[in-house]
Amino acid sequence: MNKLQLINALRIEAEITKSEAAAVVDQFFNEMASALAVGDRVEIRGLCSFFVKKYRAYAGRNPRTGQKVKVAAKNLPFFKCGKELKERVDN
Q: pLDDT tens digit string along 3-23?
């Protein structure tokens, strides 16, 4: 399912216009991204949680040349599946 399919499903289920459904979906994703950007955890009970992992800087190696390269510290978003979603997908 992509974003457009999600908007159409919401439009049909909630009986609202396509532009209203698009606004709801956009607002939802914008709020999630904003929360993750400041390091907050986003949890949707029964479905999943999103959180940010912080990685320290380290010395890596260029696979082509073998030369050492400094890799900067970074923050990456992660997804963790909820128990109910795991069970629903498994059955």
A: 999 999 999 999 999 999 999
Report the C-alpha gap between 62 and 77 in whole angstroms.
25
Beta strands in the chain (DSSP E): 42-44, 48-55, 58-61, 68-71, 74-81
- pTM reported for the whole predicted model: 0.77
* Spatial distance between the Cα atoms of 45 and 32, rounded to a whole number of angstroms: 14
The answer to whether the beta carbons of residues 47 and 28 sit under 8 Å apart is no
Write out the DSSP string of 40-64. Answer: --EEETTTEEEEEEEE--EEEE-TT
In whole angstroms, what is the distance from residue 65 CA to residue 75 CA?
27
Q: What are phi and psi for residue 52, nearest 5 degrees?
A: -110, 130
* The listed CATH number (1.20.1260.10, 3.30.470.20, 3.20.20.30, 4.10.520.10) that belongs to domain 43-91: 4.10.520.10
